[in-house]
Amino acid sequence: MNSPPSADSDQSLSEALARLEEVERGLERLAATVRAQTAELQGELGEVRLSVIALHSHAVSPPLAEAPVVDDLAEESAEGARLVALDLIGRGISLDDSKERLREAFPGIDAERVLREVGATPAS
Fold it and tell me: Considering the entire predicted model, what is its pTM?
């Protein structure tokens, strides 16, 4: 037959449950910190990726005096612009910000056209 729990066992159980709740709260805080830092690092990675692609596009196709459309750029730069556009849209960057970033990374590019080509905006 089971004997009723003693005051000591009730106290031990209460302490164990309190410790369990404390550990759970600590894990939740840690998980939130990891999620926030992961999002921050993903954003930084995207910015670095843009910078590398921009440097590559400048090496392949120096900025021109007139603003050419994508077809007038070296195919490598155009493909890079498309990849960046897909990455920006995939990361949830707004269309306006995506256009601005594409224009910065690929001077002279028709950013709206690139975004249409990758299906980010409807054809007009």
Answer: 0.42
Q: Mind giving me the DSSP string for 107-124?
A: TT--HHHHHHHTTSS---
Within-domain flag for 2: no
Distance CA 39, CA 8 (A): 47
CA–CA dist 17, 11 (Å, integer): 10
Sequence-separated (6 or more) residues with CB below 8 Å from residue 82: 114, 117, 118
Amino acid identity, residue 45? L
- Would you say 120 and 81 are in contact if contact means Cβ atoms under 8 Å apart? no
Rounded Cα distance, 75 and 77, in Å: 5
Range of the domain at 74: 7-117
The set of residues, in sequence order, having a beta carbon less than 8 Å from that of 88 and lying 6+ positions away, is 46, 97, 98, 101, 102
Q: Domain for residue 24, yes or no?
A: yes
Q: Is residue 30 scored above 60 in pLDDT? A: yes
How high is the pLDDT of residue 19? 96
Query: In this predicted model, which residue has the larger pLDDT, 29 or 79?
Result: 29
